[in-house]
Structures are given as structure tokens and as C-alpha cells.
Amino acid sequence: FAWTLNGTNVATGANPGSISAPGSNGGYTYTVSATKSGCTTKTGTVGITVSGCGPTPPTGNCYEAEAGSRSAGTELSSGGNASGGQYVGGLDSPSRYVDFAVNVTSAGSYPLTFYYSSGEAGGFIDYAVNGGGANRQNIAANGSWNTFIASSAVTVSLNAGANTIRVQGGFRFTLDKICVNGGTTTPPTGNFALDTPSLNCANGDVTLSVINGNSNPVEYQAVGLRGWATGNVLNIPAHQRNGTSFTFQARQSGNSDVSRVFTTGCAGYRIGVTASSEPDADTDTGLVISPNPSSGRVSVRFRLGAGERGSLSVQSLTGAVLQSRAVIGTGAAQTEVLDMEREPSGLYLIRVSGANSKAQTGRVLLNR
């Protein structure tokens, strides 16, 4: 017999022999062939993964690429070999980047290590610190696109407190995380909270942000307007841009969920109907909903002409009718009770219309 490994003769005879394992982390493929005079050559392929080699893993703080702030064009992928289960690709031009928020207790020089994969030789990583010029770190190939190794450390100068490290493109690599050796994170001062929302009255876009957060992604929702999502810009319809209250919520891994009530106030837009929790029985001639917010059952007080036929309905914010019943006016303030126990939490419209009266519409927040 004659044995070859990736085209190189390694042994003769019945035993195929042995070779030394690679000294670098990564995935490797070996093709073994056995030949014998008068016989057909037999070939087999085997893959191995080597880990635990290369630079000593940093002992400082590590920041996952998937948790950073990513530009358009980057690609988030799942991989069992990535430390957080995901990694970022598409970092092949300066316009594609990942920003990492890094906090250290004191200004100074810190070793920075990249955890990456590179299936081909000739790769490099470009990075910048706090808006400075780009620097380049050449990287070795590890023969894999989803098995990650540590680069040689580079030294970066960081300010005391908050810093931004940007991996801003490069060539032939995917990024798992970065680690700052010797840096000690500075815990946020104060509690995680929603900052004051910013409303653009012209187009209805409201921008949400948080204070005292960490590096994990933040999700936002507006009760009755939009469910949980990472996008921090929501749109408020024109008819709700003046005098309508919304409950905005934010959540982030490592922090407790927070909420904030915000009332729109755009001049020139119709003022929304406000539901009072303390109606005046003698003078009220409008629509009153209580309690508001409610956990499910609400009382609706309104006024229609004596004998006037009308309807009382519950609607979604898009106008879909969820409940409706016929009512007959008494000529004085009257009350109907609505059971909304089966409706999910959110903001709803309560509408009373009569044959001879102007329709009255109010809003109720279900909050369980």
C-alpha cells in the first residue's frame, strides 16, 4: 500500500501512519488516499476542528458583535461556534461597520483583541477608536468561516468612561466579538429609563431612546400602536397627534422593563377626546369612560335624545369594529357597561353614534 494525505506521501505498508495536528485554531479538511498495484485507488475525506491554540484569551471585558450597533449592509448569522451564538459578516467596506460601546475606569492604553474567522489568506480588519482614523490589523486564515480564533492584540488609547470602538470593514473575515484586556467596565449611574420622546409633528414620527442602558439591544413598544421591536421610531396617526396619551415601554436584557406615558401636543391638529375618571353627572354632555386605564370592564356614559336610537361600539385604532350594541337615548346622561375582558391589552376606541346626534369617540387603555 501507499498512503497520501492531501497529495503528500505519508506512509507505506498496511498502516497509514500519522501526522502532527495543526497548531492553529480552526477547521481543517484532510483527504486520505490508499493505492496498491492492480487495485482501484480508494479516497476518504475527514474534517477536524482544532481549538485552544493561538493567543491567550483576554481576561478583560468582551463585547459581542451581534450586540453592537450595526450599519446597513452587515449580515447577522447564527453559529454554534460563536461565543454568543451569532456573528457578523459583510464587513468588507468602510461604510459597513459595527460600533462597540466600551467603558473603562481610567484613561490609558488597553490591549484589544478581535475574535474572527477567515477562510482564506490575506484578510485584515480595519478599526477606529472614538472617531479617529482607521487602523489595520492583518489576520491569519484559520480555514473556516464559522470557527473563531483570537487575533494578536493591538493597543488602543481609551478615555476614562465611555468610548466607541468601530470595526469598520476589512477583508475576508467574519466577526464574533472584541475583547478589551485589563479594562474594567464602569456601571451606569442611575436607573435604566425611557428618555423624553421626541415627536415630529409634520410626519408623526416619534423617536424613543433610553438612558443608563447597557450594550444589549433595546426593544420598544407603544401600547395599542405597535408591539415589541428594536426600531426606536414609531409613527403616530394625524388624528392622534394632539391630546392623545400613549404608554411607551422599553426592555433590555440585564435591566427591568420600563414605561413612560407621553401625551401628544401638536398645534393645528384636532384635539383627541379625553376620557375623564371623575365625570360631572349634572353638567357632562360628552362621552365619559371609566376607569381609564381599565383591566377589562368599563363604564361608558353618554347622552342621546329621548327615544333616539343609536349604537355603542368598541373599535381598534384602525376602525375595525370589535363589539357593537344598540342603545336608545333617555334624554339625560346614561351609562352602559362594556365587558372587554377578552380583548388583549392595548388602546381602543369607544364610539357612540345616534340617529340625530353627532358621533362621540373616546379612547380607553386596557392594561392588565
Question: Can you give keywords for this protein?
Answer:
single chain, 368 residues, mainly beta, five-stranded antiparallel sheet, 32 strands, elongated
Explain how this protein is built.
Strand 26 and strand 27 form a beta hairpin. About 8% of the residues have low confidence. This protein starts with a strand and ends with a strand. 0% of the residues lie in helices and 49% in strands. The chain is mainly β and 368 residues long. The strands form nine sheets. Strands 5, 10, 13, 14 and 16 form a five-stranded antiparallel beta sheet that branches. A five-stranded antiparallel beta sheet has the order 6-9-15-11-12, with no helix packed on it. Strands 2-1-3-4 form a four-stranded antiparallel beta sheet, with no helix packed on it. It has no helices and 32 strands. The radius of gyration is 32 Å and the shape is elongated.
